[in-house]
């Protein structure tokens, strides 16, 4: 049943039709368009609205349905009705934008302007969370009136929209209460409420740290802006600037694609390297001649560039690659787990366990190298605080505990991420929803993509556009 349509009593106590403010605004906008075209306004229809509500139920079971006879669903009604459904990208624009979207299709425009086989005189509306259902009927109800519905209690909905899906792209990284987003014309930042705080006018952006973010113009020149979009470091000196909250230096890149350490005023402190990456405690890994080493914030070499890869510090250990195999070193670069494992160790440790890979199968070991879960999985994530992670067998995903037992069976197409509340972003039949540890859907799959943030917020994609929701459970 649609959430936004209710049948109630009018002010005279007679049975009437009830619309929310959003539905009535769309209805009035369509009638305004008709009147401006020299046509009479549509009448509100109780039966058509009731039919639209039923169509919401029907469309979920039969997404391919387009036209129906209304009497199939509403007893006593003999007219012909045409339902139109429109997705979220139209629903959350202005009523005029919805009409413009409707009239992009000539056959729909003909129906609205009485150019089809029927002289439609009444209309019903139904708006649910995903679609708009508009019914045109051949007869109007007699003695029916319109009343204002109470808007639904947002706290009782499974989620609310913080930012409707109008964004072209987003980066799955939240820092200092901001997320990098694109409106199709450029990149900027939105805050935790979905408000754009740095206008989408840049060719590229990174992320916020220490109150600053890198923005890149159309000439591949980098600058730093603050949360007010004020320039804190001017364009022109570098083509990329990266900051990290845990480190005192910037990593900058010049036009030769060399990386340098620089102080926060932009003064270069080291020679150029092929690549520099942040770690923790003002330690930085660097590539030199396709080998990786470690230096401090002043460029002093702590570990010569002799390894194929070195990851960041996690739970006191660096993972490193040598000869195509992975192992671990402590903070003083003493090897504590020999490099003998395959490619999934570099994720590091979380809650005392890390991946290891043997013969393209993944298991888990502790910080001493003891095997805790044998290598039997195709893929697996890192364990969360509650002791669960996602894992796959034979191409299907489920959720395991620290013993390696599946608490959610491996029957899903993909499980991407988990939040601290043990809700899993799960792909089923091409759409993402939120699954609980009890193998029950907390939010049915309805999004093309989904990525969790902090504080029960998720980035979601609908009809190719991104928005942000907050769940209420």
Shape: globular
Poorly predicted segments: 1-15
- From the N-terminal CA to the C-terminal CA, the straight-line distance is 20 Å
Strand line-up across the major sheet: 2-5-6-4-3
> So what's the oligomer here?
single chain
The total of helices stands at 5
Strand content: over 45%
User: How does the major sheet shape up?
Assistant: 5 strands, mixed
The number of strands is 42
CATH homologous superfamily label of the domain at 17-152: CAP
State the secondary-structure class: mainly beta
* CATH class categorisation of the domain at 17-152: Alpha Beta
Q: If classified by CATH, what would the architecture of the domain at 17-152 be? A: 3-Layer(aba) Sandwich
Which whole number gives the mean pLDDT? 83
Task: Please tell me how large the radius of gyration is.
Answer: 29 Å
Give structural notes:
The chain is mostly beta strands. The protein has a domain at 17-152: CAP (Pathogenesis-related Protein p14a). It is built from five helices and 42 strands. The strands form eleven sheets. It has a five-stranded mixed sheet with strand order 2-5-6-4-3, sandwiched between helices. The protein has a four-stranded antiparallel sheet with strand order 8-42-41-40, with no helix packed on it. Helix 1 crosses helix 4 (95-102). The chain is globular. The protein starts with 16 loop residues before the first strand and ends with a strand. The model is unreliable at 1-15 (pLDDT under 50).
């Amino acid at each position: 049943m649609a959430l936004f349509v209710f049948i109630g009593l009018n002010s005279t106590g007679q049975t009437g039709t009830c619309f929310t403010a959003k539905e009535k605004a769309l209805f009035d906008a369509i009638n305004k368009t008709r009147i401006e075209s020299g046509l009479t306004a549509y009448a509100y229809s109780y039966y058509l609205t009731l039919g639209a509500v039923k169509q919401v139920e029907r469309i979920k079971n039969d997404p391919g349905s387009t036209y129906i006879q209304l009497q199939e669903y509403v007893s006593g009604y003999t007219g012909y009705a045409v339902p139109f459904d429109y997705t979220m990208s139209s629903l959350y624009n202005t009523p005029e934008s919805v009409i413009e979207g409707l009239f992009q299709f000539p056959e729909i425009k003909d129906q609205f302007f009485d150019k089809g086989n029927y002289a439609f005189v009444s209309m019903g509306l139904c708006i649910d969370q995903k679609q708009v259902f508009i019914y045109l009927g051949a007869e109007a109800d007699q003695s029916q009136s319109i009343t204002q519905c109470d808007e639904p209690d947002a706290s009782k909905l499974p989620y609310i929209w913080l930012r409707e899906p109008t964004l072209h792209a987003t980066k799955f990284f939240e820092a200092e209460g901001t997320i990098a987003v694109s409106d199709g014309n450029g990149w900027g930042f939105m805050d935790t409420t979905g408000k754009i705080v740095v206008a989408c006018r840049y060719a590229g952006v990174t992320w916020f740290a220490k109150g600053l973010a890198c923005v890149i113009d159309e000439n591949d020149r980098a600058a730093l802006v603050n949360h007010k979009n004020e320039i804190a470091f001017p364009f022109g000196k570098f083509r990329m600037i990266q900051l990290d909250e845990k480190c005192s230096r910037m990593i900058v890149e010049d036009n030769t694609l060399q990386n340098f350490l620089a102080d926060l005023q932009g003064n270069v402190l080291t020679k150029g390297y092929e690549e520099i990456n942040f770690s923790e405690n003002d330690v930085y890994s660097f590539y030199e001649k396709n080998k990786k080493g470690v230096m401090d914030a002043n460029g002093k070499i702590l570990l010569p560039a002799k390894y194929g890869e070195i990851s960041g510090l996690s739970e006191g250990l660096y993972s490193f690659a040598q000869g195509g195999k992975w192992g671990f070193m402590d903070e003083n670069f003493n090897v504590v787990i020999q490099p003998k494992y395959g490619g999934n160790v570099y994720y590091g440790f979380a809650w005392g366990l890390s991946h290891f890979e043997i013969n393209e199968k993944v298991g888990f070991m502790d910080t001493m190298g003891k095997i805790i879960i044998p290598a039997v999985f195709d893929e697996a994530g890192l364990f969360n605080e509650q002791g669960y992670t996602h894992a796959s067998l034979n191409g299907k995903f489920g959720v395991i505990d620290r013993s390696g037992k599946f608490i959610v069976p491996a029957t899903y197409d993909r499980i991407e991420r988990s939040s601290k509340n043990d809700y899993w972003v799960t792909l089923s039949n091409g759409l993402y929803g939120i699954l609980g540890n009890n193998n029950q859907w907390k939010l049915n799959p309805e999004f093309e993509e989904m990525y969790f943030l902090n504080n029960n917020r998720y980035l979601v994609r609908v009809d190719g556009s991104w928005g942000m929701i907050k769940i209420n459970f």
